[in-house]
Amino acid sequence: MSELRYDPVRKTWVIIATERGMRPTHIQRPETPLHAVSRAVCPFCPGNEGRTPPEILAIRNPGTQPNSPGWKVRVIPNKFPALTIESPQKRYGKGIYDVVSGFGAHEVIVETPNDQEQMADFTIAHMRDVFSVFRDRLADLMKDHRFRYIMIFKNYGSEAGATLCHSHSQIIAIPVTPSLVTVELNSVRDYYMRKERCMMCDIIHQELEDGERIVINEERFVVFAPFASSFPFELRIAPKTHNHDFSVLDEDHLQHFAAVVKETLLRLRKVLNDPPYNFILHTAPPVTRRPGKPEYWTSISSDYHWHLELIPRMTMIAGFEWGTGFQINPTSPEDAARFLREAEI
Amino acid sequence: MSELRYDPVRKTWVIIATERGMRPTHIQRPETPLHAVSRAVCPFCPGNEGRTPPEILAIRNPGTQPNSPGWKVRVIPNKFPALTIESPQKRYGKGIYDVVSGFGAHEVIVETPNDQEQMADFTIAHMRDVFSVFRDRLADLMKDHRFRYIMIFKNYGSEAGATLCHSHSQIIAIPVTPSLVTVELNSVRDYYMRKERCMMCDIIHQELEDGERIVINEERFVVFAPFASSFPFELRIAPKTHNHDFSVLDEDHLQHFAAVVKETLLRLRKVLNDPPYNFILHTAPPVTRRPGKPEYWTSISSDYHWHLELIPRMTMIAGFEWGTGFQINPTSPEDAARFLREAEI
After folding, report:
1. I need a labelling partner for B197 at 20 to 30 A (CA). Which of A119, A179, B97, B315 fits?
2. CB B228 to CB A13 under 8 A?
């Protein structure tokens, strides 16, 4: 049974996922190559729908049946979940420590039936379908008041943590707020309380004025390399107009977001030779949508600004960087933005 | 020129080390193998002292000259430093952002003249020499009031970020406090203010009572797997008696620390088949030793408890884990401690 445990010194939660049953000899070393499976057994390939738990949502061709071929995007429960919806939702203390039982949801978004294409290859229309599924799963999971946060993320390439080649993203809904999300929420709230302005809106304003860290500046979205980038070619993709909640994205923004993400991935592929990468959707926690929520949370709609964080995995995260939160980045964000801007795609 | 930049959303500093001059084509992918160089050119091998900047400190056989063979442990400036002592110490704002110029020190501790032995192979007497050098360099750097924190750490194995095989550790002295150190300092101070007890002392007390996460319990030190371990086989090595400052470690504790670290590394090597690992020394910041320091910092001698954090690198740090601070650990610390405790070494 999984459980969430709190580190009182570092103020951070971890999931101890013992269901996954790792004995020392079973633990995969980081160098383990990407698990390339044949189409006959790949659980994400059409025709193999029976190899996964029943689908939660799919965008399908008219007339096709659930859990059979004919889908364009398909959402399924993770077969090896870090957290399960069946777990009791228990919170208790253990001396100085805090524990929450491993209650949650862990879903996989299979982004395409075609195992030969990666996200950068998708048409804009297909990319839009994928992001509409992100939005709709997020909106649905946000209705469950037991979840404190819903993370949507993608690991592309084995160095980024992917275990299957077939293009997919993941959703984890958890009964606690992740530490870095708490830090972000608190920073932007403090800023708003002092200035009555959104910090990300101010950052976007300054970045557009400076220009040197901008990669793409289109009508609805801006793509930029953060001033304090932790990693080479780290990027943020954010809407220019203030909005805290990805789950209420309108069709117009969805269309622009799809086009901008595709262009960003193509530029990264060109400049960095198809790098492994992760992206993480940062959006306001579900509690903002609940009736009767305290003032503390109500403010989030004014001060949080959703964005996509994109990290190519070009350098090691060495342990001292993990242990201290202190990153050494060998590429300036100004250089990174210039290389990406000037790439011919 | 390097600079330190502050992320106002994540409340964290990064070093943009552009001196290292990484163009997209120069960035090493994580899979780059460990740089095994021949003894003729290894800058850490005896006889090649001229290939490094002049030594800062060495433990030497009597009668041998600086920067020549005859040393047991040797400290040199890093030839490719992330920060340099020659940089001006400037702090300035840039619109919404904060910048500190790349002032600092970056040293390498070559732990042995013998490139065939790794730290786990050292005799206890040799290990003690290495840790006495840690202590003495720390004490010396703490005298420079421009440094806010001094990090001592080791990357062992290429998956842990090492670029040379020859056994070595590193010191980075920086003009800001790393974000995770700030979080730790604040957590333990809040705890002390409420309870007038050190949080780590309470944790050690509870761990010794529980017993199930203890790996080694000797006279002066305890080695345990933290309750909320982020990674499989993550360990903490801490003195049983309260002490905040590694730079004042007495000879008795030094001797015990050397023996306990050696035993820990041998147990890890046995159970995990010579894993890559990082360790990071967590000790109170230098400001605690300054005259006229404010009450805020004075308290640290009561509430901070130095310890060594040891992380075998058995799993990926996937991007979502970086992006959210949310780790999924497939091995419970209770299992990890039991495997390590029961190993025959």
Report:
1. A179
2. yes
- pLDDT interval class at B31 (50, 70, 90): very low
Q: What is the pLDDT of residues A210-245, one digit of tens each?
A: 999 999 999 999 999 999 999 999 999 999 999 999
Q: Could you give the angle at the alpha carbon of A235 between the alpha carbons of B97 and A31, nearest 5°? A: 120
- Which helix (DSSP H) or strand (DSSP E) does residue A182 occupy? helix A179-195
- Is B180:A324 a contact under the CB 8 Å cutoff? yes
Say if A169 is an interface residue toward chain B (CB within 8 Å): no
The verdict on A187 touching B (C-beta cutoff 8 Å) is yes
Active-site residue numbers of B?
168
ipTM for the complex shown: 0.89
Q: Which residue of B lies nearest to A328 if distances are taken between CA atoms?
A: B15
Asked if the Cβ–Cβ distance from A314 to B28 is below 8 Å, we say yes
Q: What is the CA radius of gyration of chain A?
A: 20
Contacts of A92 in chain B (CB under 8 A): none
Partner-chain contact A328 B15, CB within 8 Å: yes
Instruction: Report yes or no: A335 at the B interface, CB cutoff 8 Å.
Output: yes
- State pLDDT tens for residues A269-326: 999 999 999 999 999 988 765 556 555 555 667 789 999 999 998 877 777 787 778 8
At A33-86, the pLDDT tens digits run 455 677 788 999 999 999 999 999 999 999 999 999 999 999 999 988 888 888
Parts of chain A belonging to CATH 3.30.428.10: 3-21+35-174, 179-342
With beta carbons less than 8 A apart as the criterion, state whether A97 and B228 touch.
yes
Q: How confident is the model at residue B298 (pLDDT cuts 50, 70, 90)?
A: low
CB neighbour list of residue B58: distance below 8 Å, 6 or more residues apart: B66, B71, B72, B73, B74, B75
Give the full edge-to-edge strand order of the sheet including B57-60: B57-60, B71-77, B105-110, B168-174, B149-156, B277-282, B307-312, B235-239, B221-224, B214-217
- Nearest residue on chain B to A303, alpha-carbon basis: B9
Q: Which amino acid is at A8?
A: P
Question: What confidence tens digit (pLDDT) does each residue in B43-59 have?
Answer: 999 999 999 999 999 99
Its CATH architecture, for the domain A3-21+35-174, is 2-Layer Sandwich (3.30)
Give CA–CA dist A331/B20, Å, rounded.
8
pLDDT (average), residues B273-288: 89
Identify the pLDDT of residue A308: 97
Range(s) of chain B covered by CATH 3.30.428.10: 3-174, 179-342
Give B46→chain A minimum CA distance, Å.
Answer: 27
Question: CA neighbours within 13 Å on the CB side: how many for B213?
Answer: 23
73-92 in B: which are within 8 Å (CB) of A? 82
Question: Under CATH, domain A179-342 is a member of which superfamily?
Answer: HIT-like (3.30.428.10)
The answer to whether A280 and B326 are in contact (CB under 8 A) is: no
Please give the angle made by the CA atoms of A104, A110 and A116, to the nearest 5 degrees. Answer: 150
Which of A126, A168, A253, A305 is the catalytic position? Answer: A168
Q: What is the pTM of this model?
A: 0.91
Helical residues (DSSP H) of chain B, grouped into ranges: 124-142, 179-195, 199-210, 251-272, 295-298, 300-303, 319-324, 333-342
What confidence tier does A25 reach under pLDDT thresholds 50, 70, 90? low
User: Is the Cβ of B112 closer than 8 Å to some Cβ of chain A?
Assistant: no
CATH number corresponding to B3-174: 3.30.428.10
